[in-house]
Write a structure and sequence with these properties.
This protein is an alpha/beta fold. The protein has helices at residues 143-150, 191-199, 238-249, 259-268, 308-317, 319-331, and strands spanning 32-36, 43-47, 60-64, 66-68, 72-77, 83-91, 96-102, 112-115, 120-127, 133-139, 176-179, 203-209, 232-236, 254-257, 278-282, 297-301, 342-345. Helix 5 (308-317) packs across helix 6.
Length: 346
């Protein structure tokens, strides 16, 4: 039974600011790895390159192959040349996007914005109740190629250093563009680790969930059940669904890479823990008391205090185990958040 009395403040922990990782490690796999046993609460301290030691032949790792768009754009108003910053949130059609515009007071209906001497132009066609703007773009060529030239990575607000290499905020297996934020648990993988896993007989299944900026939205409600989750688009193909079902049918573990993969799998799984090819939008909110249908383990990062992400982790590992593990991570000076260290819940 779900505990409706859980408060947002129950998921608070004190994090010294210097533990928030501002840049990625030179080698992705050198991140530290905390292995947490969800039954006993016991903890081991390793490195991410040890991850395959915790996996068995036949286990299925499920990764999110979304690709982050360089969705932060800087332009000027056509009439006054005042500076405008734009963040692409959600594609509506070929030309139109829902966006976050700063400063909002300069972004009125029908405002025209120019990016890099007209390589890209946009016009605000609607102002939503949320304050977000719908912008219709005008350009020649392929939009994604223009974005690659003009756009910057939409790094989370707690990262203050400039990212030198855009690809370090992408997983090595990123394929389908559409995310406003990286599925950061996957940032620890490189091609060598993936090969080591497949050589060991570990199955790797892919799904796509386009991560929205709502993933960073703080929980402001006093009781967590009052929080409204954002929705995100997902896809799972028949081929990848078959890999997951094969592992499950043979008594092997399903290990989700990231909270995004977890939310997708738990959305599309039936009560017996089987999945089928599907696509759609999910706004599932997983917190302690939730009964998992499919996943057995989780590879994740260390998340913000009072976030929906730490609530999801607590649902799988147990709230007491999770908060104890986070305190241990602080004591051991782990690196936190997007470019930080990893946790395995087994």
């Amino acid at each position: 039974m779900i505990n409706i009395e859980l408060k947002t403040s129950d998921f608070y922990y004190n994090l010294p600011e210097e533990l928030i990782a501002q840049s990625p490690l030179e080698n992705r796999t050198y991140s530290r790895l905390m292995a947490l046993d969800k039954e006993s609460g016991s903890i081991e301290h390793k490195h991410f390159y040890d991850i395959a030691d915790y996996l068995n032949p036949g286990d299925c790792i499920v990764i999110n192959d979304t690709k982050v768009l360089p969705a932060r754009l800087f332009g000027t108003k056509k009439d006054t040349e005042a500076s405008i910053e734009l963040l692409l949130l959600k594609r509506i059609d070929d030309k139109k996007w829902e966006t976050l515009v700063k400063p909002g007071k300069k972004a009125k209906l029908n405002t025209e914005i120019v990016f890099k001497e007209g390589l890209l132009e946009g016009r605000i066609t609607d102002v939503l109740e949320t304050g977000n703007r719908i912008i219709e773009f005008k350009y020649e060529g392929i939009f994604e190629e223009i974005l690659d030239e003009l756009g910057e990575m939409p790094l989370p607000p707690y990262i203050h250093e400039k990212l030198e290499d855009k690809n370090r905020y992408q997983t090595v297996y990123a394929k389908h563009p559409g995310s406003s934020a990286a599925p950061t648990a996957g940032l620890h993988f490189n091609d060598e680790i993936i090969k080591d896993m497949t050589d060991k007989g570990i199955s790797i299944a892919k799904l796509t969930l386009h991560v929205g900026l709502g993933t960073f939205r703080p929980v402001k409600a006093e009781y967590i059940t009052e929080h409204k989750m954002h929705s995100e688009y997902y896809e799972l193909s028949e081929e990848e669904a078959n890999k997951i079902n094969y592992a499950k049918d043979n008594g092997k573990r399903i290990i989700s890479v990231g909270t995004t993969s977890t939310r997708t799998l738990e959305t599309i799984s039936d009560e017996s823990g089987r999945v089928k090819a599907s696509s759609g939008w999910t706004d599932i909110f997983i917190y302690p008391g939730y009964k998992f249908k499919l996943i057995d383990g989780l590879i994740t990062n260390f998340h913000l205090p009072e976030s929906t992400l730490i609530m999801l982790v607590s649902a799988l590992a147990g709230k007491e185990n999770t908060m104890k593990a986070y305190q241990e991570a602080v004591n051991q000076e782990y690196r936190f958040f997007s470019f930080g260290d990893a946790m395995l819940i087994k």
